[in-house]
Amino acid sequence: MNAMERVFRAIEKATRGGRFKPRMRILYTLTDDTYSHLLFEAFIKYERKFPYVEIEVLFVDEGLGRDINSVRKFCEELDLKLNIVSFRDVFNVDLQHLQGSWIFPDKCFLCRYLKRLIMVQYMKNNGFDIVILGTYLERFIVNSILNLMLKPGIINIFNDYIAEPFRRVSLSDIRKIADDRGIKFKSFKCPLKSRIELTCEKYVNEVLDKGYFPKYAMAKGFEEVAKRIKP
Questions:
Q1: How far apart are CA 58 and CA 209, in angstroms?
Q2: How many helices (H) and strands (E) does the chain have?
Q3: Count of domains for the chain
Q4: Where does the chain show beta strands of DSSP type E?
Q5: 20, 82, 155, 213: which could join 218 in a potential S-S bond, CB 3.0 to 4.6 Å?
């Protein structure tokens, strides 16, 4: 099984769970990262199996200098409607000017929460049925650890509205797809990334690289823990 086949298999497992139904309007969140574009292309190809689903793209701009033009070009090439909402539109300030609090002491956690808040509000206000995130396996594990460490249950309030069909897709598979297509892998480097986020990423990468736990088993374990935590 090649890398793209593994991606399709992950999408198939996710769509088998009943989250995707006929005549649904899907809001797919996109970033300027290469992995985000490649996973979205895979989803579009797989989506042809149920062409009755309507898809639009949402780009959430934190005000950190992301390449919005690359996202516009990507959506134009695929003839998809792009919707853009910025932190400034919603909160009147960019992310770096938002202050943390005792509820959200970590800015990365605050960013994840507020982006999900924006996504779900946009979904509800514009008649969409579900939000799709392009979260790959390693990112899913890091997010799960931080969610459990910082404020268990708070992120879970969005679970009924959000799907992560790529949470079993390894970053190595995404890089392999990029290499096979001759695409330079680009990843946004956030200037505000917190110490706890960097430490967690380093720890997870070390654990996975040394093979202490199978990646999929590790992700599944966090999924089961998350189910038991109520918001």
A1: 33
A2: 9, 5
A3: 1
A4: 25-29, 54-61, 82-86, 130-132, 162-163
A5: 213
Q: Closest Cα to residue 89, out of 126, 112, 114?
A: 114
Q: Which long-range contacts (CB under 8 A, 24 or more apart) does 209-215 make?
A: 215/137, 215/138, 215/141, 215/170
CA distance 177 to 1: 13
The secondary structure of residue 61, as a DSSP letter, is E
Express each pLDDT in 172-204 by its tens digit. 899 999 998 898 888 898 888 888 888 888 878
The residue assigned the tokens 């790959």 is 136
Q: Which domain holds residue 101?
A: 3-227
DSSP 8-state code for residue 166? T
Q: CA 119 to CA 73: how far, in whole Å? A: 21
Which residue, 67, 47, 63, is CA-closest to 55?
Answer: 47
Residues 6+ apart with CB under 8 A from 97: none
When computed from its CA atoms, the radius of gyration of the chain, rounded to whole angstroms, is 17
Measured distance CA(168)–CA(14) in Å, rounded? 9
Phi-psi region of 18 (alpha: psi -120 to 50; beta: other; left: phi over 0): left
Tell if the pTM clears 0.90, that is, is over it. Answer: no
Report which residue type is found at 106: D
In the 8-state DSSP scheme, what is residue 168?
T
Question: Domain with 85 in it: what CATH number?
Answer: 3.40.50.620
pLDDT of amino acid 28: 95
